[in-house]
Amino acid sequence: MWSLKSWQGRFLPHSGSDRLRSYAGWCNAVEGNTTFYATPSRETVATWAEQTPADFRFVLKLPREITHSHRLADVSGLPEFLRAIEPLGDRTHALWVQLPGSFGPGDLPVLSRFLRGLPGHLRYAVEVRDPAFFHDPHRLEEVLAGVGAEWVPFDTTEFFRTPPTSDAERDAWMKKPRMPLRTVALTDQPIVRYLGRDAVDRTVGGWQRWVPVVAGWLREGRSPTVFVHTPDNADAPALCRRFHDEVRALVPELEPLPVSPDPSSLPEAEGPPTLF
């Protein structure tokens, strides 16, 4: 996710050819949500690698045919996906296995078989959306720990604390899952997804519980990745940097984020935007 229209001219150039490079000047990780809908070509992925530094982190969502249509039972499309992302090399921080809300604790044997059949040189992070997993987390934790996979919490507690007040919030209210809060890391590379509100003060207030948690992980020698969302994501890059600053105030040895580009220096449009 690095081509949001509302970011153009603010965080990214208007031209579609160099947006990822500009995004990497604001943040050092990205959710690869587009791979959920279509597997990109190796040539496209090679341009992603070329536009990002060697330590940039891609958390790439597995295709929906695997996770949702076939519910992990048919992985025939996985080799094509893995070949496509090879140009990223170590930039592939984790493959993100986002499961549908209908995938519950009774499906754990399927998840276990799937994870154990994956290539061992990559890291995996699983996001579940059935609240039953949170009521008795130990069974899922055992499955994930057996293969060194992480459990990705999606913190929507602040978002659902009060009713929506805008069209963007109402749309997200219908689409986003109401998930219990989870702040436990299973591996040395935890991943957190957080959803705030339109109002900056609400978003910042809601993430305050995460600042000491993430700082604690860093002090333990872990290397967390945190993604900050709002209903329209219009200010997400700036909010991510603000969250990073708050964590760095507690852990001064944390490396600073890249120096963000001056928006006035961004080039004007040269053609239609493209993802693939």
Automatic annotation (TrEMBL):
Here the segments flagged for biased composition (Low complexity) are: 254-268
Q: Which SUPFAM superfamilies match?
A: TM1631-like
Region annotation Disordered: where it falls in the sequence:
254-276
Q: Which InterPro entries match?
A: DUF72, UPF0759_sf
Protein name, as recorded: DUF72 domain-containing protein
Origin species:
Actinoplanes sandaracinus
Its taxonomic path starts at:
Bacteria, Bacillati, Actinomycetota, Actinomycetes, Micromonosporales
